[in-house]
Amino acid sequence: MLGSATEMKTSSTSSASVIPDWSRLPEELLNIVSKNVEDCFDIIHARSVCNFWRSTFPSPCILSRPSYSLPSFANFPSASKDLCTLERTPLFLFRVQTPPPASASEYFLGGIGRDESDDLTELPSPIQCSLKVKIPGSDPTLMNMRDGQIFPLGHQYRISCDSKDYRGLGFLQLHKEGREEFTVLLRFGRFFLGLRSFEMKWKLVMGFKAPSSGDIVTFKGRFYVTARTSMTTVHTLRIDPFSLRLTLLMPVKHLGSLKYLVACGNDDELFMVEKLSSFSNVSDFSRFTCSVHRLHEETGLWVEVSDLGDRVLLFIRQQGNVSWSAKELPDGCGVSGNSILFTNELDNGTYAYKYGVDTGREEDDPNCWRFSERIV
C-alpha cells in the first residue's frame, strides 16, 4: 500500500511539473483567443510562443513605426542632397511593480523605440516581458513588465536632423486623387517650413515669427499654430495641408504668455493653455498660473473654460502635447481628471495644475489654474 501511495505521489508531482505546450492549442480555440486579445503587449507575448501563434496574431498597429526619408532642411533656404528621417513613435504610460520596501508601483511616461545597442546578450528570459528603459539622468535599465501595465497615450512624430534650429513638427496623412500623400509642417528657428510628399521640397510657409512655445498640432485635417503676426499681436493660425495657405483666427490676448495647443479625443476639441508668469524665475513651475481656452470652430474664437471634465492635458516640451481621459488611467497614479500637467526637463518632475486652488493668500486670484502638486 505504501508503494502505491508513493507511486501516486510521484505521478502527481510529475504531472504538475509538466509545462503545457501551448503551440498545440487547437486552431479553432486559438482563433477565438486572437480575436479577444486587445492589449498590444499581450499580443506581442502571444506572437512569441511559436511560429504558428505568430502567424495567427497580427502585429499590433499601435506599435508600428512608419518612417519617411525627407530632404534635409538644415541649410534652408539652400537646397541639400542630404536626407533626414521622419518616424512615428508610440507613447505610453508604464506602471512597474516595485519590491518592498518601495512604494507599490512606479510610473514612467515615454515612447517605445528600437534598441540600437550592439550587446543584447544580457537580456533576461523571456525577452518579450522586458523593456530597456532610459530615464533622463540615469543609465538604461531593464524592467520586467510581466507584472506591470502599459497604457497607450497616442503617438508622436520625430525627425532626425543635425540642425539646432529644429523645434518640433506636425504630420498629416492625406488622400489626393486616389493616392496616399502626406504633408509635414515643422518649426525651424523662429519660422515654419512645410513639405508636401508629391513635391518633396521644403517651403517657407509664413514669415511670421513663432513664439518660444510655438506648438504645431493637427486638428480635423488641418495644422494649427500660434505665431507673432506683428510686434504687438499673436494669432492662432489654421494651415491647409494641401495648399499650405493659412487663415488667421482671432488674436490671443496675453502677448507675453507661453502658449500650448492640444487636441482632445478623436479630433473632438482643440484647447489652448496659456502659462502666465509675473516673476523672472521661469523654471519654478510652482509659481505659474494658467488660463485654458477651447476653440469655437465656427467663429474662430477662443472661449475660456474652467472645467475640463475628466480630461487630463499633458505638455511634454519638445516631445509634444497629448490628452486622455482620467478614466483610462490606473488607480493610484496620482493623476485625476480636470487637470493640466507640465513636465520640467531641469528636474525631470511633473507638475499638476487645478482650477480654483486656494493658496491661502488674499492677493491670489482663485479664478485661474494654479499649481496643485508635484506628481513625481
Keywords:
376 residues, 4 helices, 23 strands, 43% strand, disordered N terminus
Short description:
The chain is mainly beta. It is 10% helix and 43% strand. It has four helices and 23 strands.
Outline, from the CA principal axes?
globular
Helix proportion range: 10-25%
Largest sheet: 9 strands, mixed
Overall number of strands: 23
- Helix vs. strand class: mainly beta
Total of DSSP H or I helical runs spanning 4+ residues: 4
The fraction of residues in strands falls at 35-45%
Unreliable segments (pLDDT under 50, ≥5 consecutive)? 1-16, 120-127
SSE sequence, one letter per element: HHHHEEEEEEEEEEEEEEEEEEEEEEE
Please compute the radius of gyration using only Cα atoms.
25 Å
Description:
The structure is a single chain. Helix content is 10%, strand content 43%. With 376 residues, it is mainly beta. The strands form 5 sheets. Strands 15, 16, 17, 18, 19, 20, 21, 22 and 23 form a 9-stranded mixed β-sheet that branches. The longest helix is centred in the first third of the chain and has 15 residues, at 2-16. 26% of the residues are buried.
